[in-house]
Design goal:
Elements: H1 2-30, H2 41-47, E1 67-71, E2 76-80, E3 86-91, E4 102-105, E5 108-114, E6 120-130, E7 133-140, E8 156-159, H3 161-170, E9 176-180
Parallel strand pairs: 1-9, 7-8
Antiparallel strand pairs: 1-2, 2-3, 4-9, 5-6, 6-7
């Protein structure tokens, strides 16, 4: 009887080990292989354009602290307060001249002027220039559709009047502006 018990225990142990081995093989076969460093869920999310993710979400790599973030690719601005909290975000219409990505400071402001395209604008917040063309945020006094063709280089990044009011209150002289792609 001891021989049949030993054979029975050996048979059960062998069956259990075979089952565990088979389940381990199946589990290993369903794990994706790592072909590159950029294949995880974060990399897949990063391949989706920002505007299809959450347009209000602050883009990674846009700096830290209080600042204005301007995305050249998304034509969007974020006003970022302390603790990297987004106070406001909105879409903008870029001029014909873009600033290079980088960090700038607001250098001048004008309450009301005429833009280089002849449009009366208000709440102008300038932060750099490119080839003599001032680059800054502004709002058209009268909501007019953008001109079809202009031969004059323009650096005005146009906002709605409501968004222009928010920018004017937020971006004072010396405020940081982070331009990203």
């Amino acid at each position: 009887m001891a021989t049949s018990n030993a054979a029975f225990v050996t048979a059960l142990t062998t069956a259990a080990l075979a089952t565990v081995g088979f389940l381990a093989y199946q589990a290993a076969a369903t794990v994706p292989t790592r072909t590159s460093a950029g294949s995880g869920p974060a990399a897949v999310a990063a391949k989706v354009p920002r505007h299809q993710q959450d347009p209000a979400a602050l883009p990674p790599g846009s700096g830290a602290g209080e600042r204005v973030v301007y995305s050249l690719d998304d034509n969007r601005v974020w006003l970022v307060g302390s603790g990297d909290k987004v106070i406001r975000t909105f879409e903008v219409i870029p001029g014909t001249v873009d600033p290079a990505p980088g960090v700038y400071e607001v250098t001048s402001r004008s309450n009301s002027v005429t833009g280089t395209d002849g449009t009366p604008i208000e709440h102008v917040v300038r932060f750099t220039s490119v080839d003599g063309v001032a680059i800054g945020f502004s709002a058209a006094v009268r909501e007019t559709p953008p001109a079809d063709m202009t031969t004059v280089p323009t650096g005005g990044i146009r906002e709605s009047r409501r968004d222009g009011d928010a920018m004017w209150d937020f971006a004072t002289i010396g405020a940081r502006v982070a331009v990203i792609h």
